[in-house]
Amino acid sequence: MGQLTNKVAIVTGGASGFGEGIAKAYIAEGAKVVVADVNGEGARRVANELGASATAFTCDVSKATDVNAMVQHCVDTFGVPNIVVNNAGVTHKNQPMLQVDEAAFDRVFAINVKSIYYMTQAVLPHMRARGDGGVILNVGSTAGIRPRPGLTWYNASKGAVNLLSKAMAVELGPEKIRVNAICPVIGLTAMFEQFLGVPDTPENRAKFLATIPLGRFSEPRDVAAAAVFLASEAAEFFTGLEFPVDGGRTI
Length: 251
Hints:
Blueprint: E1 8-12, H1 17-28, E2 32-37, H2 40-50, E3 54-58, H3 64-77, E4 83-86, H4 102-130, E5 134-139, H5 152-172, E6 177-184, H6 192-196, H7 202-209, H8 220-231, E7 242-245
Parallel strand pairs: 1-2, 1-4, 2-3, 4-5, 5-6, 6-7
Helix pairs in contact: 1-8, 3-4, 4-5
Protein backbone atom coordinates (compact mmCIF):
# COMPACT_ATOMS: atom_id res chain seq x y z
CA MET A 1 0.00 0.00 0.00
CA GLY A 2 1.37 3.38 -1.01
CA GLN A 3 1.12 6.46 1.16
CA LEU A 4 -1.46 7.95 -1.24
CA THR A 5 -3.44 4.85 -2.25
CA ASN A 6 -6.93 5.72 -3.54
CA LYS A 7 -6.21 9.45 -3.42
CA VAL A 8 -6.95 11.71 -6.39
CA ALA A 9 -4.53 14.54 -7.11
CA ILE A 10 -4.22 17.49 -9.47
CA VAL A 11 -0.69 18.68 -10.27
CA THR A 12 -0.32 21.88 -12.28
CA GLY A 13 2.85 22.51 -14.21
CA GLY A 14 3.08 18.74 -14.42
CA ALA A 15 4.78 18.47 -17.81
CA SER A 16 8.31 19.09 -16.53
CA GLY A 17 10.53 19.97 -13.59
CA PHE A 18 9.12 19.84 -10.09
CA GLY A 19 5.58 19.11 -11.31
CA GLU A 20 6.65 16.08 -13.30
CA GLY A 21 8.61 14.83 -10.30
CA ILE A 22 5.59 15.24 -8.03
CA ALA A 23 3.25 13.51 -10.49
CA LYS A 24 5.59 10.53 -10.79
CA ALA A 25 6.02 10.25 -7.02
CA TYR A 26 2.26 10.43 -6.47
CA ILE A 27 1.62 7.64 -8.95
CA ALA A 28 4.32 5.53 -7.27
CA GLU A 29 2.51 6.04 -3.94
CA GLY A 30 -0.82 4.86 -5.35
CA ALA A 31 -2.60 8.07 -6.31
CA LYS A 32 -4.50 8.91 -9.47
CA VAL A 33 -3.17 12.10 -11.00
CA VAL A 34 -4.35 14.81 -13.38
CA VAL A 35 -1.22 16.17 -15.06
CA ALA A 36 -2.14 19.72 -16.01
CA ASP A 37 0.09 22.04 -18.01
CA VAL A 38 -0.15 24.79 -20.60
CA ASN A 39 2.23 22.53 -22.57
CA GLY A 40 -0.37 19.96 -23.57
CA GLU A 41 2.08 17.79 -25.48
CA GLY A 42 4.38 17.60 -22.45
CA ALA A 43 1.47 16.81 -20.14
CA ARG A 44 0.36 13.98 -22.44
CA ARG A 45 3.91 12.60 -22.53
CA VAL A 46 4.08 12.46 -18.73
CA ALA A 47 0.59 10.99 -18.39
CA ASN A 48 1.29 8.34 -21.02
CA GLU A 49 4.49 7.34 -19.19
CA LEU A 50 2.55 7.03 -15.94
CA GLY A 51 -0.20 4.81 -17.35
CA ALA A 52 -3.89 4.43 -16.61
CA SER A 53 -3.74 6.17 -13.24
CA ALA A 54 -2.80 9.46 -14.92
CA THR A 55 -4.61 11.73 -17.31
CA ALA A 56 -3.39 14.89 -19.06
CA PHE A 57 -5.19 18.20 -19.39
CA THR A 58 -4.03 21.27 -21.28
CA CYS A 59 -4.57 24.20 -18.93
CA ASP A 60 -3.48 27.81 -18.73
CA VAL A 61 -3.75 28.35 -14.97
CA SER A 62 -4.07 32.11 -15.46
CA LYS A 63 -7.49 31.57 -17.10
CA ALA A 64 -10.50 30.75 -14.93
CA THR A 65 -12.27 28.88 -17.74
CA ASP A 66 -9.27 26.57 -18.19
CA VAL A 67 -8.97 25.90 -14.46
CA ASN A 68 -12.69 25.21 -14.08
CA ALA A 69 -12.61 22.81 -17.03
CA MET A 70 -9.54 21.04 -15.65
CA VAL A 71 -11.14 20.50 -12.23
CA GLN A 72 -14.28 19.19 -13.91
CA HIS A 73 -12.13 16.82 -15.98
CA CYS A 74 -10.63 15.51 -12.75
CA VAL A 75 -14.07 14.99 -11.19
CA ASP A 76 -15.39 13.26 -14.30
CA THR A 77 -12.30 11.05 -14.76
CA PHE A 78 -11.16 10.08 -11.26
CA GLY A 79 -13.51 11.84 -8.84
CA VAL A 80 -13.21 14.84 -6.52
CA PRO A 81 -9.53 15.58 -5.84
CA ASN A 82 -8.18 14.90 -2.37
CA ILE A 83 -4.94 16.72 -3.16
CA VAL A 84 -4.26 19.82 -5.25
CA VAL A 85 -0.70 20.91 -6.01
CA ASN A 86 -0.48 24.44 -7.36
CA ASN A 87 2.96 24.09 -8.88
CA ALA A 88 2.76 26.01 -12.17
CA GLY A 89 4.93 29.11 -12.05
CA VAL A 90 7.02 31.56 -14.04
CA THR A 91 9.61 34.21 -13.34
CA HIS A 92 10.96 37.29 -15.00
CA LYS A 93 14.61 37.54 -15.89
CA ASN A 94 16.93 38.42 -13.03
CA GLN A 95 17.46 42.14 -13.64
CA PRO A 96 17.01 45.55 -11.96
CA MET A 97 13.42 46.04 -10.88
CA LEU A 98 12.75 49.03 -13.14
CA GLN A 99 13.68 46.99 -16.20
CA VAL A 100 10.82 44.52 -15.69
CA ASP A 101 7.96 45.75 -17.84
CA GLU A 102 4.30 45.72 -16.84
CA ALA A 103 3.42 42.78 -19.06
CA ALA A 104 6.06 40.62 -17.36
CA PHE A 105 4.88 41.74 -13.92
CA ASP A 106 1.27 40.91 -14.76
CA ARG A 107 2.23 37.51 -16.16
CA VAL A 108 4.21 36.57 -13.03
CA PHE A 109 1.35 37.47 -10.71
CA ALA A 110 -1.33 35.90 -12.94
CA ILE A 111 0.42 32.54 -13.13
CA ASN A 112 2.02 32.42 -9.67
CA VAL A 113 -0.73 33.99 -7.55
CA LYS A 114 -4.06 34.51 -9.29
CA SER A 115 -3.98 30.90 -10.48
CA ILE A 116 -4.30 29.78 -6.86
CA TYR A 117 -7.37 32.01 -6.48
CA TYR A 118 -8.91 30.37 -9.56
CA MET A 119 -8.02 26.85 -8.39
CA THR A 120 -9.44 27.45 -4.93
CA GLN A 121 -12.67 28.83 -6.38
CA ALA A 122 -12.98 25.76 -8.59
CA VAL A 123 -11.98 22.97 -6.20
CA LEU A 124 -13.05 24.06 -2.73
CA PRO A 125 -16.81 23.58 -3.28
CA HIS A 126 -16.13 19.97 -4.34
CA MET A 127 -13.95 19.29 -1.29
CA ARG A 128 -16.54 20.83 1.00
CA ALA A 129 -19.36 18.81 -0.54
CA ARG A 130 -17.44 15.59 -0.01
CA GLY A 131 -16.87 16.62 3.61
CA ASP A 132 -13.76 14.64 4.50
CA GLY A 133 -11.12 17.36 4.24
CA GLY A 134 -8.33 17.62 1.72
CA VAL A 135 -4.83 18.87 1.02
CA ILE A 136 -3.77 21.95 -0.91
CA LEU A 137 -0.05 22.37 -1.58
CA ASN A 138 1.16 25.64 -3.06
CA VAL A 139 4.67 25.71 -4.46
CA GLY A 140 6.08 28.94 -3.07
CA SER A 141 9.80 29.58 -2.94
CA THR A 142 12.72 30.47 -0.75
CA ALA A 143 12.50 33.71 -2.78
CA GLY A 144 9.51 34.60 -0.62
CA ILE A 145 11.53 34.05 2.56
CA ARG A 146 15.05 35.24 1.70
CA PRO A 147 14.74 37.29 -1.49
CA ARG A 148 17.58 37.65 -3.95
CA PRO A 149 18.30 40.98 -5.69
CA GLY A 150 17.20 41.22 -9.30
CA LEU A 151 14.11 39.10 -8.77
CA THR A 152 12.05 41.65 -6.84
CA TRP A 153 8.67 41.12 -8.49
CA TYR A 154 9.08 37.34 -8.61
CA ASN A 155 10.08 37.42 -4.93
CA ALA A 156 6.92 39.38 -4.19
CA SER A 157 4.73 36.86 -6.01
CA LYS A 158 6.21 33.99 -4.03
CA GLY A 159 5.89 35.93 -0.80
CA ALA A 160 2.20 36.20 -1.64
CA VAL A 161 2.00 32.44 -2.23
CA ASN A 162 3.71 31.71 1.07
CA LEU A 163 1.44 34.03 3.04
CA LEU A 164 -1.82 33.10 1.32
CA SER A 165 -1.04 29.46 2.13
CA LYS A 166 -0.94 30.36 5.83
CA ALA A 167 -4.15 32.39 5.57
CA MET A 168 -5.92 29.55 3.77
CA ALA A 169 -4.69 27.09 6.41
CA VAL A 170 -6.20 29.17 9.22
CA GLU A 171 -9.54 29.56 7.46
CA LEU A 172 -9.87 25.99 6.20
CA GLY A 173 -8.43 24.18 9.21
CA PRO A 174 -11.83 23.64 10.88
CA GLU A 175 -12.91 21.77 7.73
CA LYS A 176 -9.82 19.51 7.90
CA ILE A 177 -8.47 20.99 4.70
CA ARG A 178 -4.72 21.37 5.18
CA VAL A 179 -2.77 23.99 3.25
CA ASN A 180 1.01 24.20 3.10
CA ALA A 181 3.58 26.03 1.00
CA ILE A 182 6.54 24.06 -0.34
CA CYS A 183 9.46 26.47 -0.75
CA PRO A 184 12.22 25.15 -3.00
CA VAL A 185 15.54 26.84 -3.56
CA ILE A 186 16.60 27.33 -7.18
CA GLY A 187 16.61 24.13 -9.24
CA LEU A 188 17.77 23.08 -12.68
CA THR A 189 14.35 23.64 -14.24
CA ALA A 190 13.35 25.49 -17.41
CA MET A 191 13.49 28.77 -15.46
CA PHE A 192 17.07 28.31 -14.25
CA GLU A 193 18.84 30.75 -16.58
CA GLN A 194 16.16 33.40 -15.98
CA PHE A 195 16.83 33.10 -12.25
CA LEU A 196 20.54 33.54 -12.86
CA GLY A 197 20.07 36.53 -15.15
CA VAL A 198 23.48 35.78 -16.65
CA PRO A 199 24.76 32.97 -18.88
CA ASP A 200 24.62 29.52 -17.29
CA THR A 201 28.34 28.99 -16.80
CA PRO A 202 30.16 27.00 -14.09
CA GLU A 203 31.38 30.28 -12.60
CA ASN A 204 27.89 31.78 -12.38
CA ARG A 205 26.44 28.56 -10.98
CA ALA A 206 29.12 28.57 -8.32
CA LYS A 207 27.97 32.00 -7.07
CA PHE A 208 24.47 30.67 -6.45
CA LEU A 209 25.69 27.38 -5.01
CA ALA A 210 27.77 29.28 -2.47
CA THR A 211 24.52 30.44 -0.83
CA ILE A 212 23.24 26.87 -0.33
CA PRO A 213 24.95 25.12 2.62
CA LEU A 214 24.39 21.60 1.28
CA GLY A 215 26.10 22.63 -1.92
CA ARG A 216 23.67 21.66 -4.66
CA PHE A 217 20.54 22.91 -6.37
CA SER A 218 17.13 21.46 -5.61
CA GLU A 219 15.95 18.56 -7.74
CA PRO A 220 12.47 17.30 -8.61
CA ARG A 221 12.94 14.34 -6.25
CA ASP A 222 13.49 16.71 -3.33
CA VAL A 223 10.29 18.65 -3.96
CA ALA A 224 8.41 15.43 -4.68
CA ALA A 225 9.48 13.95 -1.33
CA ALA A 226 8.06 16.99 0.47
CA ALA A 227 4.87 16.85 -1.61
CA VAL A 228 4.33 13.17 -0.82
CA PHE A 229 4.86 13.65 2.92
CA LEU A 230 2.67 16.75 3.20
CA ALA A 231 -0.16 15.04 1.31
CA SER A 232 0.05 11.85 3.35
CA GLU A 233 -1.71 10.83 6.56
CA ALA A 234 1.64 11.10 8.33
CA ALA A 235 1.31 14.89 7.96
CA GLU A 236 -2.25 15.12 9.29
CA PHE A 237 -1.19 17.69 11.93
CA PHE A 238 0.89 19.84 9.57
CA THR A 239 -0.77 22.94 8.13
CA GLY A 240 0.19 26.53 7.43
CA LEU A 241 3.87 25.68 6.93
CA GLU A 242 6.45 27.42 4.81
CA PHE A 243 8.28 24.16 4.14
CA PRO A 244 11.78 24.96 2.82
CA VAL A 245 13.29 22.44 0.41
CA ASP A 246 16.47 24.37 0.19
CA GLY A 247 19.62 22.65 1.44
CA GLY A 248 19.82 25.23 4.20
CA ARG A 249 19.49 28.35 2.03
CA THR A 250 17.00 30.09 4.37
CA ILE A 251 18.94 29.51 7.59
